[in-house]
């Protein structure tokens, strides 16, 4: 099992950038597929991006493709989400999740398939 702590959220103007970080603890971090999700009040947690345990496969939600970049550093036990060209619609609490299932579209896309989550970090994009 891993524990996750997100950081890097904040208030930014539309068109700006933020870099979210997710720090993991636990000896088996490098075996986990990792994902970023986001949630606004009254809505379900929404898939944003995912990266396979070795970084060899990456997937994005259509709404962020070309603007967001997910990456990981297994040696540092870190996962990152670089967010560029931010839009007011990107405003949400962003969560980092760890997923021990075999990589598939059914595993990385659904929040129910993740083993644990961080506490979340708020991202607010003003127009």
Walkthrough of the structure:
- With 127 residues, the chain is mainly beta.
- It is built from 1 helix and 11 strands, in the order E-E-E-E-E-E-E-E-E-H-E-E.
- It has one helix at residues 105-108, and strands at 3-7, 10-13, 18-25, 33-39, 46-51, 58-60, 68-73, 78-83, 92-99, 116-117, 121-126.
- Strands 2, 4, 5, 6, 9, 10 and 11 form a 7-stranded mixed beta sheet that branches. The chain has a 4-stranded antiparallel beta sheet with strand order 1-3-8-7, with no helix packed on it.
- Strand 4 and strand 5 (46-51) form a beta hairpin.
- The longest helix has 4 residues, at 105-108.
Per-chain topology:
Layout: E1 3-7, E2 10-13, E3 18-25, E4 33-39, E5 46-51, E6 58-60, E7 68-73, E8 78-83, E9 92-99, H1 105-108, E10 116-117, E11 121-126
Parallel strand pairs: 2-11
Antiparallel strand pairs: 1-3, 3-8, 4-5, 4-9, 5-6, 7-8, 9-10, 9-11
